[in-house]
Amino acid sequence: QRVLLLVASDVDALCACKILQALFQCDHVQYTLVPVSGWQELETAFLEHKDQFKYFVLINCGANVDLLEILQPEEDTFFFVCDSHRPINVVNIYNDTQIKLLVKQDDDLDVPAYDDIFRDEEEEEEESENESDGSEPSEKRRRYEEDVIERTMRRRQRREWEARRREILFDYEQYEYHGTSSAMVMFDLAWIMSKDLNDMLWWAIVGLTDQWIQDKITQMKYVTDIGILQRHVSRHNHRNEDEENSLSIDCMRIAFEYDLRLALYQHWSLYESLCNTSYTSASLKLWSVQGQKRLQEFLADMGLPLKQVKQKFHSMDMSLKENLREMIEESANKFGMKDLRIQTFSIHFGFKNRFSASDIVYATASLMENIEKEGPETTNFIKALDSLSRGNLDKLHQGLDLAKKQLCAIQQTVASCICTNLVISQGPFLYCSLMEGTPDVKLFSKPVSLCLLSKYLLKSFVCSTKNKRCKLLPLVMAAPMDVEQGTVIMVGIPPETESSDKKKFLQSAFSEEKAADSTNSRTLHNHFDMSIIELKTEDRSKFLDALISLLS
């Protein structure tokens, strides 16, 4: 039996896909891989292949909508869904014949009880129509009156039940958030089957790191999952350091470490990494002259000469590099950057190849959303998938170069948005719109890049504003999507608060499309993330007005 793999376009999905491909190779399972970037592509792929395939595996797509209603499959078609999007649609949860959900057992789903949201059809049909004609008229009337009362009661109960059902479902579906990374779920599967390899473990680590970089999970969840993976890492990578057992230098090994929260610094210069990491740039307010001064003071405090800081990291003096992390952390604490140290993993293979998990995430994401056209749509997806394999270092390095360009573009855009006051408060949320003709605006027509930009912008804005209320508001960001078709892409980002809840407030407003319905805006919910929406440029202001009145 051949299997059709439908894989969403995000790094976590790619990692889960690599693990599953490796498992399929172990068992000689034949499969076809189809990348899907949104609901439309998913439906098209299903329609094209539904006659040849009976088994479909969906990675990071499909859990948060009613699959059977959208795809209308035959009775003998089966879906295996491994998706980190929450909340999972209730029909998918309670349909155990055709839809099999792959979730970790300790994932808290908070699903409403079956009886609260589903009623059997038969109950409703039992309107009693069994009146006998042979009895007295008075008898008939009495029975008829009882009947009416009973029916009225039943209708009232049904109305109450329906009202409660709406309330329960609203509470359940109100917020969008993310569960355990799909790559980790797949790795768990491999581990249970005793087929886990070090490569699979590394992909699980990259999948988790992707969730953390994209801000999809809380710090708490990240640290917990790192702990789970750390046990696997020590199981796979422990070495007896005596002469006989020392491994050849080409072998791959994974190590847990406390690293600096600086993007790509080992493949860049320390200076550029400090300038283009959202955490340091927002804390030091680098878009202002004052901020640039603070950066110089910060470097002086560490005692690092500018000449050293501005050259490639691997060309820096060894004497400086040895206790660089401690030096940076110590100075960072003085400058109010207390969270510069994070728990992560790094991978070594060969003599000089050392990458941290976040390097791989940035590189893979940039390859996937590369805007330079090189052949068909799927080229970028395949490239990104390949860059995750150890053998394709050239692709990985190409991804790292693209990622540096992307981070610089994000940082420049954030600076110009803040310096030209493009972030405006719309009442219940902040709003920022990128105009056509802004530098690098093409890059931000892609969902992952736009979300990263929005998160960086919100972080920086919260650091720069004096307004206390603005610090608690979510952000809605719009960017031109397709100039010829006149569409914009909009994304909603939850407030940048210290609380640990990473839930999206916009889910109910966006996905109910109340805002769209009330204004007849032509919207398209093509993305698997419900907080991303596409609409016609001329409908944008109508949509915003509706969103404001909905959320006020």
From TrEMBL:
Show the GO cellular component annotation of the record: DNA replication preinitiation complex
Which region ranges are annotated with the description Disordered? Answer: 120-144
**Gene Ontology MF: a single term:** DNA replication origin binding
Classification via Pfam families = CDC45 (PF02724)
Q: Report whether 4Fe-4S shows up as a keyword of the record.
A: no
User: InterPro entries from the xrefs?
Assistant: CDC45
Localization, per the record, is:
Nucleus
Q: What keywords sit in the KW lines?
A: Cell cycle, Cell division, DNA replication, Nucleus
Question: One GO BP annotation here?
Answer: cell division
- Please note every region of biased composition (Acidic residues): 120-136
Family designation: Belongs to the CDC45 family.
User: What protein name is recorded for this chain?
Assistant: Cell division control protein 45
Q: What organism, scientifically named, is this protein from?
A: Colius striatus (Speckled mousebird)
